[in-house]
Structures are given as C-alpha cells and as structure tokens.
Automatic annotation (TrEMBL):
Residues 144-205 form the RNase H type-1 domain. This is Maturase K. It holds the Pfam family RT_RNaseH. One of its GO terms (molecular function) is nucleic acid binding. InterPro entries: DNA/RNA_pol_sf, RNaseH-like_sf, RNaseH_domain, RNaseH_sf, RT_RNaseH. The keyword Nucleotidyltransferase applies. The keyword Transferase applies. It comes from the Eukaryota. Keywords: Endonuclease, Hydrolase, Nuclease, Nucleotidyltransferase, RNA-directed DNA polymerase, Transferase.
Length: 205
C-alpha cells in the first residue's frame, strides 16, 4: 500500500446510513454507504464515556452516540441526508415537547441536519459499531506515541482475497501489514475483515 486507502467516498446528495452502538464505557457509530455491491464502510467514530456520562440512561447514551457522530462527521451531515438505523426510540425522545437540559441542547444541535430514522435491518454494520464501542479505551492516551491512526483496505478476486493495514502514530512511526484470507469473500467482506484485523492489531500493541 503506497498511500493510505480510503474506505469509501459518497456521491453527491447520496443518502448515508448510520448505525449506533453503546457499550458499558463507550459509544460508537458506523457511517456506511449502500451500493449494488452491498454496504461500504466510510467512517467509524467512538467516544469513551467519562464522569456523569457513565450514569446516563441507555437511550441517552444512544443519543450521545448520534451527537458525537454529527460533531465528528459534520461535513457529511451537512452535505447528505443521514438515515439512522436503530431499534431505540431516539426520534420520539428528541422530539418531545417537554425536553430540558442536555436532551434539549442535543435536539437543537441536531436540528440543522437532515436526519431521518428507520428500524435497523442490516446487522453487518451494526456488528462493526458494537465492536468499535467495545474496543474504545475509557482512559485516553497521554502522549502522541500512544495515538494510532488505522488505514485499511481489502480486495478479492478469482485467485484469492487479502487485506492491507497501515498504522501510523503522531511521531510518524509506520507499521504496514499484509494478510491473505484463507476463505472465499467479496470485496466488501474483505474490507470489513481488514478493519477488524486493524483494530485487533492496535489492541495488542
């Protein structure tokens, strides 16, 4: 891999899909595209819960996952319709007329975006969002050497499938890994496998 691979780029005005997840000490989101080849991951966001956030109710944590994704991926939220797929009643919660405190603040913050909601149908992106939430460390790193950025790519053809992973920290240290998959897979599945392998690699460091 000579350049850090991009997971997937959306077309103009394309509807993007967001999956939310909550773990005991973290929340996460997976932003994906849907194409004729299946789901294409774009970005994954996560936030370690701290202080009072750890005592939020489950539905409040799900709402926080949405707010965090909107803040981190603001340019995508402004340029695209975001379809949130969840089994949680976020829409009704954020639309209540008697809201107050942080829920009112979050509702106002999200009101500038074209966010829609539908019941979760597909599990693959949800599994990734769950995995990111579980992998998020509640204790943030203390220096640049401990902060790593993951770049991944995967591909499949008639001769086999493989994946490439690049890890880079803020001191410029690069770790490149290439892996061959021993089972048949599509390009889309190879990309998911590459992402999961990258997260496991970071966890072991």
């Amino acid at each position: 891999l000579s350049e850090p691979p991009v997971l997937s780029r959306p077309d103009d005005e394309e509807i993007l899909y967001l999956y939310l997840s909550v773990a005991s000490e973290a929340v996460s989101a997976a932003l994906v595209r849907e194409t004729h080849e299946g789901q294409k991951p774009m970005y994954f966001t996560s936030k370690a819960l701290q202080g009072p956030e750890l005592r939020y109710q489950q539905i409040e944590k799900v709402a926080l996952a949405l707010v965090n994704a909107a803040r981190r991926l603001r340019h995508y939220f402004l340029a695209h319709t975001i379809m949130v797929r969840t089994d949680q009643p976020i829409k009704s919660l954020l639309g209540r007329p008697d809201m107050a405190g942080r829920m009112l603040k979050w509702s106002l913050e999200l009101s500038e975006f074209d966010i829609r909601y539908e019941r979760r149908k597909t599990l693959k992106a949800q599994v990734l969002a769950d995995f990111v939430a579980e992998m998020t460390n509640p204790s943030p790193p203390t220096n640049g050497a401990d902060k790593w950025t993951i770049f991944v790519d995967g591909a499949s053809n008639a001769t086999g499938a493989g994946e490439g992973i690049i890890l880079e920290n803020e001191n410029g240290i690069l770790i490149e890994v290439s892996l061959a998959l021993s089972f048949p897979t599509s390009n889309n599945q190879a990309e998911y496998e590459a992402f999961l392998a990258g997260l496991r690699l970071v966890e072991d460091m």
